[in-house]
Amino acid sequence: MSDAQLEIRARVLEHIVEGGKVSDTLDLICRETEALHPDIQSAVLSFDLHRKRIRLAAAPGLPGEFKLAVDGLDIADGVVSCAAAARTGELTIVEDILADPTWSSHATLAKEMGIRACWSQPIVSKRNEVLGTFSMFCGDARAPSAEELQILQSHANLAALALAHMREGEFLRDSGLTSRALLEGSPVCNKIIDLDSRLLYMSAAGIKMLKLEDVEPLYGSVYPPHFYTEPARASLTDSLERAKLGEICDVECPIYSLEGDEVWLHTTFVPARNDDGDVEYIIACSIDITKRKHAEMGLAS
Question: Based on the domain organization, do 155 and 181 belong to the same domain?
Fold first, then answer.
């Protein structure tokens, strides 16, 4: 994952943690996608489970006429990539809309709107339910690049957090801390840390990453954990202290699981504020970048 994508993830997670409106979060995901690739337009479509239709949730860059055409499509009809991805639950790549039969009813409009290719990634909940699709539209007839495929998957995962909130109606509240349900459903290692540096929560992804049998003994203890190396503890502590002052901080460092496996993490510390604007606690989001770091070190050697 590139540095730009990591920065986007941090901004979107911050928006979710601060209780931003779901529609604004989805709009932010689309705008950030289009900022990475100005030749791409993107959309989030939610799946109406009862009516078996896809509904347009966000598409800031798409023409209004095209938005109206895809909003409310019945997935059973098997038309356009977005509906097909929601129906099958699989990545759907259409390299040339004009040559694809599933787009026949919308191909002329798409051409008029300057759209020739559409790539749609299902948005799936932690219970493996299809919540919607994240789609990217291109003006050229082509397949997505490896980077664009990575963005499809990554931003679909971000949209899953927001759409899970929409489906459930509200954030789960527990001991005054919001958004735990969303944090738990993420493939990222998410942690909640109070202003005394005590670990209050770690998501399932982090427990698996560190190969912990039981995370409960760590709750209430000072973060970073005692079994991290001193250099890692120093780097993480510095970023945590800056986050307490209101700064969003990033740090990359290696840690070791309880079984001694080296894991490189990119950790973003996001200050969560209360209604008065004061920092109330810290969300730490850690992404496993081990493969990337090992590749970099291999090239360097």
Answer: no
CATH number at residue 118: 3.30.450.40
For residues 250-276, one letter each, b for 16 or more C-beta atoms within 10 angstroms of the residue's C-beta and e for the rest, the string is ebebebeeeeeeebbbbbbbbbbbeee
Which domain, by its residues, includes 94?
20-168
Residues 261-293 pLDDT 10s: 888 999 999 998 877 788 888 999 898 899 888
Please say which residue of 148, 168, 188 terminates a domain: 168
Among 65-69, 136-140, 174-178, the range scoring the smallest mean pLDDT is 174-178
The pTM for the full model equals: 0.57
CATH of the domain at 217: 3.30.450.20
What is the CA 213 to chain-centroid distance, rounded? 27
Q: Residue 157: CB partners within 8 Å, gap ≥ 6?
A: 186, 187
Contact yes or no for 136/125 (Cβ under 8 A): no
101 shares its domain with 64:
yes
Rounded to whole angstroms, how far apart are CA atoms 300 and 294? 10
- Burial of residue 98 (CB within 10 Å: 0-12, 13-18, 19+) is middle
What is the per-residue pLDDT across 176-193, written as a single tens digit (0 to 9) for each?
A: 444 555 555 567 888 889
